[in-house]
Amino acid sequence: MAPAYLLGAIPFGLLFTRWLAHKDVRQTGSGNIGATNALRAGGKLVGALSLLADVLKGVIPVAAGRFIFDAGELLTALIAAAAFLGHLFPVYLGFKGGKGVATLFGVVLPWQPLAAVLAFLLWLAVLGISRYVSIASISVGASLPILAWMLGASRFCLITLAMLGLLMLVKHKDNLMRLADGREPRIGGA
């Protein structure tokens, strides 16, 4: 699980923004190291690379555990949690990390692929309707355990997704406060 955590802890949004836009993503926008703020700080290429890397740091350890090392459900749950917690609490940045949306999608994709696809479609729909990335992200965190349950996931998967979704909600507390105050930015400037 340590390799999953250490991979999850790599702050790709920070690295790509520094390397390609010569900025510190933590000093821009929300100050978050994730893909959304990397997009704001460094543009489309930086945002896309950060998103892809954050998804892959969830996919790689879970897929390796399941398909290379034949991990059972409990071990898969621990690997998924380790990668996700690495993103939220990276040792490399004093345990101050991102919100985990892309990494959560990444850990679910090789474990419960249909739930991941449905969650992504839900994210797109909520984003299209609300124009708030945060609302779309929170919706996914809340819906993933339900989607996985409907698709017959194991209890280890359900418990893990519920805990990770709750952590993701906690990490969005500032967004929730800005939403309540009417200060949360929408995409497209609307």
Topology:
Blueprint lengths: L1 H7 L3 H10 L13 H8 L1 H25 L4 H16 L12 H8 L4 H18 L2 H18 L4 H17 L1 H9 L9
Helix pairs in contact: 1-4, 1-5, 2-3, 2-4, 3-4, 4-5, 4-6, 5-6, 5-9, 7-8, 8-9
Question: Could you give a short description of this structure?
Answer:
It is built from 10 helices and no strands. By secondary structure, the chain is mostly helical.
Task: Record keyword descriptors for this entry.
mainly alpha, 0% strand
Radius of gyration: 16 Å
What is the ordering of alpha helices and beta strands? HHHHHHHHHH
Q: What amount of the residues lies in strands? A: under 5%
Number of self-contained structural domains: 1
Report the total helices.
Answer: 10
How far do the termini sit from each other? 42 Å
Could you describe the largest sheet, including whether it forms a barrel? none
Structural class: mainly alpha
Mean pLDDT: 95
How would you name the oligomeric state of the polypeptide chains in this document? single chain
Amount of helix: over 70%
Shape: globular
Walk me through what this model shows.
With 190 residues, the protein is mostly helical. It has one domain. Helices cover 72% and strands 0% of the residues. The protein has 10 helices and no strands. Helix 2 packs parallel to helix 3 and helix 3 packs antiparallel against helix 4. The longest helix is centred in the N-terminal third of the chain and has 25 residues. The chain starts with a helix and ends in a 9-residue tail after the last helix. The relative contact order is 0.12. The mean pLDDT is 95.
